[in-house]
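Q: Convert this sequence to structure tokens.
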Amino acid sequence: MCQMTKQNNPQLSIFRHGYRNKDGDAVLQTKPEGVADILSVYQYITSTKAKDAQDALRAMRLTASKEERGDFKKLNFRFVTFRGIFSSRKASELTLLSPYIVIDIDGLPSTDEARQLVCQMSADRYVETALAFVSPGGLGVKWVVEIPDWLQGQDYKEQYLGLCRHVVLQYGYEPDWGCSDVCRACFLGHDPQCFINLKYLNDETI
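A:
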């Protein structure tokens, strides 16, 4: 049964990179390797641990299909479930709820535009940002936010869609409306300029 606690340092599940199954398909891990928090995710993203894989992924933009790039991400990047801790990566196995939602904005024209959007979102007046970073592919943004008061009391899907509408109205970009599943995987690449809310550096988490 899922619980929501007043954690001093909300926890997330973190997963190793995926593998090829017996049919040769690239699949994600379902069992987490452990737990992480916002600070440790930030430290991983700003380290160089995923840099080589990310450089290879970005080099594939003009030569590989979307499916091939998707398989490469599954096989080479660790990922987290920002909604909380899962005993297995499916909605029914969410055991500890976090206060976070991650919104994906993909298909931007350039990495520079993605970087500009990170800067804008990190200063949002209506939604508190926990993390914001350029996605591993370089043409998107991962915006990790704390669920605002104006969305409290709604179910997860409505909270997600409410934040997507906010992105459209506030920034003029189309987010990925289809990422409203609670166990959504968020791949962790390399972004040395990743934004983190200073309260997590000061150990003042909610």
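The radius of gyration is 16 Å.
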